[in-house]
Design goal:
By secondary structure, the chain is an alpha+beta fold. The chain is built from four helices and eleven strands. It has helices at about 5-15, 85-100, 140-145, 190-205; strands at about 55-60, 65-70, 75-80, 115-120, 130-135, 170-175, 180-185, 215-220, 235, 245, 250.
Length: about 260
């Protein structure tokens, strides 16, 4: 990660997430998927009080869970092409951060949400470009944000956001219901950590007789880089046959 971009990302994250730094568990429970039960009236702890997309836990396996996200969830997204995951994610994050900071036709500041989702569509070879689509979840209508418990979040309405001034920023949607296998891990989430966690999750799923899509995988990050402990990262894999278009963030086939 280039030093200048990295510094800018750290400052940006501190600006939007610093108030939540005290909300994470201090006991290293970042990888405990059991904390994401939707039966609670509160959103999962790792959302840190920010708007985050609703989901239902369909089942739990050995070190992973199967989640179902409803159709129609909207995201603000940008796609970066390159060979470096870390540089691409930094570039994409800053494009989106500038958008929510006022780089839009209304010059409006937009609330930060969670997670930062990254769809990774690997290149065909070791020196081929990959596509990285970085997305921020579109926040809910403000009058609804505090009035609906997490188990009924699906009934909330996401905001209509102003048009970006950057042509590389666009709105995307999960057109159909999205089913993902989720593995959680703590610590930093650089390119090597993400690859290792994705491979480990694929291996666990294979042992359970589950076939996953090989065309793309996803990272979901919930923490500021300044959070030293209690970090919660996720890698998402999709079942074979329900492939998300990582270039535009759209699900083209229900699963």
């Amino acid at each position: 990660m280039r030093a200048g971009v990295a510094s800018a990302v750290l400052v940006a994250w501190l600006a939007v997430l610093a108030p939540s730094l005290a909300l994470a568990p201090a006991d290293g429970a970042s990888a405990a998927l059991g904390a994401s039960e939707t039966a609670s009236s509160a959103s999962p702890w790792f959302c840190h009080g920010l708007d985050c997309p609703p989901f239902a836990v369909e089942r739990r396996g050995d070190g992973y869970e199967t989640r179902v996200y409803p159709a129609g969830l909207r995201w603000t997204s940008t796609t970066v092409t390159g060979v470096s995951y870390d540089d691409a994610v930094s570039t994409g994050f800053m494009r989106l951060f500038r958008y929510i900071s006022g780089a839009n036709e209304a010059e409006e500041k937009i609330s930060m949400t969670a997670p930062v989702r990254v769809a990774v569509a690997p290149g065909d070879g070791p020196f081929c470009d990959s596509n990285f689509t970085v997305s921020f979840f579109v926040p809910f209508q403000e009058e609804e944000a505090q009035d609906v418990s997490f188990e009924h979040t699906e009934s909330k309405t996401q905001r209509n956001l102003p048009k970006p001034t950057d042509p590389d920023v666009f709105e995307s949607a999960d057109v159909k219901e999205t089913r993902v296998f989720v593995g959680a891990f703590g610590g930093d989430a650089d390119a090597k950590a993400l690859r290792d966690e994705a491979a480990a999750l694929a291996s666990r799923l294979e042992q359970d007789g589950v076939e996953v899509a090989a065309s793309a995988y996803f990272y979901a990050g919930y923490d500021s880089p300044f959070r030293p402990i209690g970090r919660h990262n996720e890698v998402w894999l999709k079942p074979s046959g329900g492939v998300m278009d990582a270039a535009r963030g759209e699900t083209d086939e229900g699963v």
